[in-house]
Amino acid sequence: MRTHRCSIGVAGAIALAWLAQGLDAAQAPANASTPGASRASSAARTPAVPRTPDGHADLQGIWDYRSATPLERPAQFAGRETMTAEEVDVYERRAAERADGRPPDDPRTEQSVHPSWWLDYGKTVVKTRRTSLIVDPPDGRIPPLTAEAKERIAARRAAAQSHGPADSPEDRSLFERCLTRGVPDGMLPGPYNNNMQLLQTPGYVVIFTEMIHDARIVPMDGRPHNSQDIRNWMGDSRGRWEGDTLVVDTVNFTGKTSFRGSGPNLHVIERFTRLDADTLEYRFTVDDPSTWTKPWTVAYPMVRTEGPIYEYGCHEGNYGLLDILKGARSEERDGGEAAKKKD
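Above: the chain's sequence. Below: its structure in token form.
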């Protein structure tokens, strides 16, 4: 269900990218090369891949990443990277028949905040028939947490006990508050709005996700990352080309946008490769020695769709957060009145 309004929108992201490009050009030395002027190596080019006017692979379009394939490999497929055709049929049947609309191996059983008909989880597995989106480690599972990460998570849980779960909006997650899903979490299949639009200008790439209307404007001119003193919810991204693959390197996160327990030193490397007219392979590797015992990698194909990308007015329709806060205040009043009666 995608019936929302966006605060920046794709058009705004494009305008900002072109504006930033113009400002960079105006500030560049007279003998500096124009951003994006470098060409992909002819030896690394794939003839079938469409190209932009500056010679790079054209990755633009709207890409759908819904999938019933779980992030981690379920126990029933332990030791196996792919499903058989018969197993695919059974798995997709389970996805279609699950009453609460969630993926087959989702362990949650509580009521969703949305009715099942609202949800738009994928009902088919990735066409590679992989048993998990995680491709490394080979077992298809997230590596163990380090001792430091376990201590950090325990400290967060202890701190959460010092106040109620809804004393203020800041006690709820950034996702619940319609602020961001973060990176790379916003690129993983979710309950709905599983669409990403990619746009290219000579000096920038825009990665725009329909969920939470996150727009990343990624410089492609070789500039270094910002100082570690400057940190962002979605990190600090820099892009480059490796042949026909777009590589986006992101660092300088904050501790507020933890990805599955990660700390602020999370390092994310994303790779976008167009395989054919209708398929974009997306791959990312996350590394944080303070969180996991080793890096791990996710890869899956995105499918071209005509769209459109709908505007996402999460703030305007975020009645769930409002009701959580109102419910907490109501419980406080009821508790106060009960205490008075006892007195």
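The CA atoms of residues 9 and 311 lie 7 Å apart.
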